[in-house]
Amino acid sequence: MELPHGITGKLAEPIEKILFTEQEIQERVKALGEQLTRDYQGKDLLVVCVLKGSLYFTADLIRHINMPLSLDFISVSSYGDATHTSGIARITKDLDEDIEDRHVVITEDILDTGLTLDYLVKLLQLRNPREIKICTLLDKPSKRITGIRADYSGFEIPNLFVVGYGLDYKHKYRHLPFICTFRDEFIPKD
Ligand code: IMP
């Protein structure tokens, strides 16, 4: 398979299929940014990027939000293996900003079981924000085991393991400009 950006060799080896091209992602992210612009006019918006997976998504998204906003970062680590969260999480990098009385939008790469965001939302609610909304690039509703749902979602996907545009496999492949699936021998098993 010929890949865009001249991607070859070890980087190309595990890739099975491109699910969303760079252009499809950019178009969808632009539409989400425009929607947020409409919804948050005149409000004190704080975008909270969940590291590391939503780095690219957040950077692209906020450039389509046409109003003043603040950006902050949070990092949560969950116990369990690299690809399955156990639900027990802890903050490894906390916010710098005070969120009291502010409109918070959490940007996440993928909403899977929902355990990570469930933990994060409950934790941030204790700090008395005006409101917390969730904006996820990908949504895998079939895997959900919590009541968490996305307020804004880029693409809904079936129960597939996906990589690229921020999403990693064993801390690698985040920098692929598209979102792809991996060949069977590379896919983590449930
Ligand atoms: P949740 O707590 O189960 O919703 O898990 C969310 C986190 O699991 C995401 O932020 C990702 O880091 C990881 N994750 C879930 N599904 C995938 C996937 O298909 N590819 C890569 N990482 C994933």
Bound molecules: inosinic acid
Task: Provide the spatial order of strands within the biggest beta sheet.
Answer: 4-3-2-5-6-7
**Proportion of strand residues:** 25-35%
Mean pLDDT: 93
Fraction of helical residues: 10-25%
Outline the biggest β-sheet.
Answer: 6 strands, mixed
What is the number of E strands? 9
Q: Give the number of helices.
A: 4
Low-confidence spans: pLDDT under 50, at least 5 residues?
A: none
Shape: globular
Structural class by helix and strand composition: alpha/beta
Question: If you compute it from the alpha carbons, what radius of gyration comes out, rounded to the nearest whole angstrom?
Answer: 17 Å
Give helix and strand order, one letter per element, not per position. Answer: HEHEHEEEHEEEE
Distance between the termini: 27 Å
Write out key terms for the chains shown.
about 190 residues, 4 helices, 9 strands, about 30% strand, globular, binds inosinic acid
Question: Could you describe the 3D structure shown?
Answer:
There is one protein chain. By secondary structure, the chain is an alpha/beta fold. It has helices at about 10, 20-40, 55-60, 115-125; strands at about 15-20, 45-50, 70-80, 90-95, 105-110, 130-140, 150-155, 160-165, 180. The strands form 2 sheets. The protein has a 6-stranded mixed β-sheet with strand order 4-3-2-5-6-7, sandwiched between helices. Helix 3 links the parallel strand 2 (about 45-50) and strand 3 (about 70-80). Inosinic acid (IMP) binds near residues 83, 112, 114 and 161.
